[in-house]
Design brief:
3 strands, single chain, three-stranded mixed sheet, mainly alpha
């Protein structure tokens, strides 16, 4: 009977998401600000995906990978923000075990997939600048598709493993998660079981999912910088740096926050820090990505103007 009651408590009871906002005027303003950022991120990433699909001149490896990044960012913000907003507006803070597992799976999978995708984008820039004559071969449509597919698959495998193990633990007590979504480190603090082994597994996964892609990125951009330095043309240098700087800005923001979050032991985490850092790379970074790439890319600006021009001409003809 004791075992049955513990099982029911573990698998039937909902978790409570404590969230990040209260009903104070300041927090109400911050909540409205988050919704504004979410709206910009949602529309910006949706626009990037559609723009790259609709404009044939953007059907290149670099922009195909960028469309995958925007799609991942779009899914990432939709994994956490709508539930947070619903709980805040409705006054309900509960989330079911299935809902918690769904959040963990998509959240971990998308973060892992972005890690490998950013490494693929760095490799693409290396080939374009250091091996331009071999670019059609080394970054063919088939290879580009395989790189994107591998990013999705590896991220999903990590998500499946972490979700399955995290939900296999027994959870007891108040079952209050000090976060605005079901994040694995925050969830582990509620477990009745010894989670030390799983924490080590998470650390190993983070080494693979973060440090291996970072090594590829560092190696790629080291070669790119050396190649740019030896370029004779000042215009060539400017164009190469402009192309790569956008990607490096995104990499710096994303990896810095992810390493700070997941490459520390659970005991050193504080709820306030975790909420702040998580909000940065799950809400703010997805908003900044399309802004950074669209503002620094003449091709994206040209495609956007072209689509708008078609829309206006269509309205006039009607």
């Amino acid at each position: 009977m004791v075992w049955d009651s513990q099982e029911n408590q573990t698998f039937d009871a909902d978790f409570i998401l404590l969230g990040v906002f209260s009903n104070s005027p300041t927090h109400t303003f911050l909540f409205a600000l988050v919704l504004g950022v979410f709206s910009v991120a949602f529309m910006g990433n949706t626009a990037m995906v559609l723009l790259i699909c609709l404009d044939s001149q953007l059907h290149t490896p670099m922009y195909f990978l960028l469309s995958q990044l925007s799609l991942m960012d779009l899914m990432l913000i939709c994994t956490t923000v709508p539930k947070m907003a619903f709980n805040y507006l409705s006054g309900k803070k509960s989330i079911s075990l299935a809902g918690c597992g769904t959040q963990i799976f998509f959240y971990v999978s998308l973060l892992g997939a972005e890690c490998f995708l950013l490494a693929s984008m760095a490799y693409d820039r290396y080939v374009a600048i250091c091996q331009p004559l071999r670019y059609p071969v080394l970054m063919s449509q088939k290879i580009c598709g395989l790189m994107a597919a591998a990013s999705w698959i590896l991220g999903s495998l990590d998500g499946i493993i972490e979700t399955a193990v995290a939900l296999s633990f027994s959870y007891c007590g108040a079952r209050e998660i000090p976060h605005f979504f079901c994040d694995v480190p925050a969830l582990l603090t509620l477990s009745c079981d010894d989670t030390l082994m799983f924490e080590r597994v998470i650390f190993i996964c983070c080494v693979i999912m973060l440090l291996f892609p970072v090594a590829v990125i560092v190696a790629s951009y080291t070669c790119v910088i050396l190649a740019v330095i030896h370029m004779g043309s000042g215009e060539g240098r400017r164009k190469a740096f402009a192309t790569c700087s956008s990607h490096l800005m995104v990499v710096g923001m994303y990896y810095g926050a992810a390493m700070f979050m997941y490459m520390r032991p659970t005991s050193s985490h504080s709820p306030a820090q975790d909420k702040l850092v998580s909000a940065f790379y799950t809400i703010l970074t997805p908003m900044l990505n399309p802004v950074i790439y669209s503002l620094r890319s003449k091709e994206v600006a040209r495609a956007f103007t072209k689509i708008l021009g078609k829309g206006k001409s269509g309205e006039q003809s009607d």
